[in-house]
Amino acid sequence: MTILDTIMTHKRGEVAARKARTSDADLAARIAAAGAPRGFRAALDARAGHALIAEVKKASPSKGLIRPDFDPPAHARAYQAGGAACLSVLTDEHFFQGADDYLVAARAAVTLPVIRKDFMADPWQAAESRAIGADAILLIVAALDDGPLAEIEAAALELGMDCLVEVHDEAGLERALRLRSRLIGCNNRDLRDFSVDVSRSYRLKALAPADCTFVAESGLNSRADLDAMAAHGVHCFLIGESLMRQDDVETATRALVG
Ligand SMILES: O=P(O)(O)OC[C@@H](O)[C@@H](O)c1c[nH]c2ccccc12
């Protein structure tokens, strides 16, 4: 069992319980009240220089507690003021100490598009994500077979959301490209063993078709890391831990992408 298997098993149970206590009518009403999605991929594509997806992240299974004075709306405002293009908010409770309410509060504090960072196992979660306001969802290729991946993607696109399709190797990229989304994330951290290797992004960027928006994810710390990525043609970045550890999040964000 890898950590990803453990997470997905837990997630399926969690989703079953959430489904059982949520009526379809209630979900539909919340989606109708949510307002239009903000355009996640478009916000990345609109940036001329480094485009940052800044992550609101309290803790992780590999690092434990990252941000003791965790304050989602304050971090969201600091990220926006510092020049981030988009936000990512962890909502998984059991492994990442996240919460749906963190996404709701962070999104309400800014005008940036927000991706719900969670583990999708069922198309129902696409609707649930839209109901809490998400503008995009994450689809982890290594966590799902092709059939469920396409079904969850279809449900998300139907609701006007974007899908960030996450891969970590060549085989995963090939599977990702069978989907409709052309927003690809390369996770430099292998969720099966937590090992980080930023050169994964260099390799996979070279293989991705030119019409893909390509995002390097995880393990990025400094402006020099981003400039090295840019030299390989990578201009979009998903960063959590290194920003969440800063006292002054806004200044740290500006130093990265300003
Ligand atoms: O905190 P980091 O190393 O900057 O990484 C952020 C982000 O890439 C990471 O949180 C992440 C990428 N893919 C995920 C999937 C699930 C949970 C978390 C993630």
Rg calculated over all Cα atoms: 17 Å
Question: What's the story with the biggest beta sheet?
Answer: 8 strands, parallel, barrel
Order of helices and strands: HHHEEEHEHEHEHEHEHEHEHH
Average pLDDT score: 97
Percentage beta strand: 15-25%
Order of strands in the sheet with most strands: 1-4-5-6-7-8-9-10
Kindly state the percentage of residues in helix. 40-55%
Specify the structural class.
alpha/beta
Report on the structure:
InterPro entries: Aldolase_TIM, Indole-3-glycerol_P_synth, Indole-3-glycerol_P_synth_dom, Indole-3-GlycerolPSynthase_CS, RibuloseP-bd_barrel. GO terms for molecular function: indole-3-glycerol-phosphate synthase activity; phosphoribosylanthranilate isomerase activity. Keywords: Amino-acid biosynthesis, Aromatic amino acid biosynthesis, Decarboxylase, Lyase, Tryptophan biosynthesis. Pathway: Amino-acid biosynthesis; L-tryptophan biosynthesis; L-tryptophan from chorismate: step 4/5. It holds the Pfam family IGPS. This protein has 258 residues and is an alpha/beta fold. It has a single domain, classed as Alpha-Beta Barrel (TIM Barrel). The protein contains twelve helices and ten strands. The chain has an eight-stranded parallel β-barrel with strand order 1-4-5-6-7-8-9-10, surrounded by six helices. The chain has a two-stranded antiparallel ribbon with strand order 2-3. Helix 6 links the parallel strand 5 and strand 6. Helix 2 packs across helix 6 and helix 4 packs parallel to helix 12. The structure holds indole-3-glycerol phosphate. The site of indole-3-glycerol phosphate (IGP) has 14 residues, from strand 10 and helix 11. The site of indole-3-glycerol phosphate has 14 residues, from strand 10 and helix 11.
